[in-house]
């Protein structure tokens, strides 16, 4: 047959070889990059081009985390390439392959749960982050007097009644205090009585 590289006839015993369903002269079957002979050597065939192992590895993308070549499956995210096991949350280090994730302003990758733990507003009562319950994507945050509250923490400071539901629904702030209507009225009566006795 004819050599797939040079086009000349391959004649004589031991002068030719077969690779990638083609015939080559032994001297023509070389790495496309470094020209090292490949007969009897491991090689990689990419689009009918033969590469020796070191040259092939040099053509591969490198992982953005470990800088090693990606030999098998490439995970692409945030415009970069990763080994699937290297694409992890910066906080819990869990692999995020196939798991929803988000990126903070500094470009750091977080699982959704850790992102909420780190960046969610904190409740002014219990100091815990206000974040969705497990399995949920949204939550309710109450803001009053420039402070954040969980729904269950949004209570009257005097009687402890929930301000988000029931008969005492609504906030009636007084001097920076979160109060229900009844407790607000009671404090105003006390303040009015004190002001009249001070005269």
Automatic annotation (TrEMBL):
- InterPro entries associated with the record: Znf_LIM (IPR001781)
Primary localization: other
One GO molecular-function entry: metal ion binding
Q: Which residues form the LIM zinc-binding domain?
A: 1-60, 61-121, 122-190
Where is the protein situated, by its record's location annotation? Cell junction; Cytoplasm; Nucleus
Name of a matching Pfam family: LIM
What GO cellular component is one of the record's annotations?
Answer: stress fiber
Q: Coiled-coil regions in this chain?
A: none
Keywords of the record, alphabetical order, are: Cell adhesion, Cell junction, Cytoplasm, LIM domain, Metal-binding, Nucleus, Repeat, Zinc
Which top-rank group of organisms is this from?
Answer: Eukaryota
* Signal peptide interval: none
Q: Biological process (GO) annotations?
A: cell-cell adhesion
- Protein family: Belongs to the zyxin/ajuba family.
From the Swiss-Prot or TrEMBL record, give the protein name: LPP protein
Q: Native species of this protein?
A: Crocuta crocuta (Spotted hyena)
Q: Which gene encodes it?
A: Lpp_0
């Amino acid at each position: 047959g004819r050599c797939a590289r040079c086009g000349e006839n391959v004649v004589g015993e031991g002068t030719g070889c077969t690779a990638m369903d083609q015939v080559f002269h032994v001297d023509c079957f070389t790495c496309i990059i470094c020209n090292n002979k490949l007969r009897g050597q491991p090689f990689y065939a990419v689009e009918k081009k033969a590469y020796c192992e070191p040259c092939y590895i040099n053509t591969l993308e490198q992982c953005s985390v470990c800088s090693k070549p990606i030999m098998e499956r490439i995970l692409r995210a945030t415009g970069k390439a990763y080994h699937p096991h290297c694409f992890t949350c910066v906080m819990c280090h869990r692999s995020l392959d196939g798991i929803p994730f988000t990126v903070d302003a500094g470009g750091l990758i977080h699982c959704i749960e850790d992102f909420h733990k780190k960046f969610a507003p904190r409740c002014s009562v219990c100091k815990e982050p206000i974040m969705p319950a497990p399995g949920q994507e949204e939550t309710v945050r109450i803001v009053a007097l420039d402070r954040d509250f969980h729904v269950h923490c949004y209570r009257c400071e005097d009687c402890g009644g929930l301000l988000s539901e029931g008969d005492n629904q609504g906030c009636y702030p007084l001097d920076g205090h979160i109060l229900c209507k009844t407790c607000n009225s009671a404090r105003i009566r006390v303040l009015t009585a004190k002001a009249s006795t001070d005269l």
